[in-house]
Design goal:
It comes from Hebeloma cylindrosporum. This is Protein-tyrosine-phosphatase. About 45% of the residues lie in helices and about 10% in strands. By secondary structure, it is an alpha/beta fold. The protein has a single domain, classed as Protein tyrosine phosphatase superfamily (Protein-Tyrosine Phosphatase, Chain A), CATH 3.90.190.10. A hairpin with a 3-residue loop joins β1 and β2.
Length: about 220
């Protein structure tokens, strides 16, 4: 499939298009040897697709600016469990930014060695036509600022819900918070790739205890 891209070889696939024909949908997943299928709304897929591999759909309310941010912990938890078992995860959304947010948020959460901007650089290398939007960048920056577990009561999420109440000073403070989280280690593309390809590392095990505190998807 033309726009199905391998973000992490043999681990994460990304697509903003998917066959509507049931037979073609099943054939695509089987031919790619996908073990876990993740869809993020909006996503129009035939129900037959979920019959050949485990399928998890995450609803993101387009009318709620914080909905995608609050969904990220559950999406990342599902991806983490799949990759921990040597799975190949196929992430799809008709809205490319939603799928990109999911595959970006996972390595940010898993390694905690790189900023949202750095991970988006990796995505752009894999997807030359990908357009980095301010909204996507901001969502991932807030994800970091919330310590990778955003809740509806977190100040950063409240400001996302009510942008008129956020001032320049607050945005600056959020930036400092994200930088503090990352201050102990510098971004290294080689280390980043190694971390993604070693799902059983200590960095990943350190988040295992948080699986049961995943935020409910709106």
């Amino acid at each position: 499939m033309v726009d199905t891209v391998s973000i992490v070889p043999d681990k994460l696939l990304l697509s903003s298009n998917f066959p509507t024909d049931p037979a073609q949908a099943q054939s695509l997943l089987l031919d790619l040897r996908v073990t876990h299928f993740v869809t993020i709304s909006p996503a129009d897929i035939p129900s037959a697709a979920g019959a050949v591999v485990p399928h998890r759909h995450f609803v993101v309310d387009k009318t709620s600016p914080e909905s995608l941010l609050l969904a990220l912990p559950a999406i990342c938890s599902y991806i983490y469990e799949a990759l921990k078992g040597d799975g190949l995860v196929f992430v799809h959304s008709s809205r490319e930014s939603h799928a990109c947010a999911a595959v970006c948020a996972y390595p940010v959460m898993a390694t905690k060695r790189c900023s949202a901007s750095d991970v988006l650089d990796v995505i752009e290398r894999a997807l030359p036509l990908f357009h980095r939007t301010q909204s996507l960048s901001h969502t991932l920056e807030l994800y970091q600022a919330c310590g990778y577990l955003p809740t509806s009561t977190h100040p950063a999420v409240k400001e996302l819900k009510n942008p008129s109440n956020a001032g320049t000073r607050t945005v600056h403070d959020l930036g400092k918070t994200a930088n503090t989280i990352l201050s102990e280690t510098a971004f290294d593309l080689g280390a980043f790739s190694d971390a993604l390809n070693s799902i059983q590392t200590d960095a990943l095990n350190s988040i295992q205890g948080k699986r049961h505190s995943v935020v409910r998807v709106l």
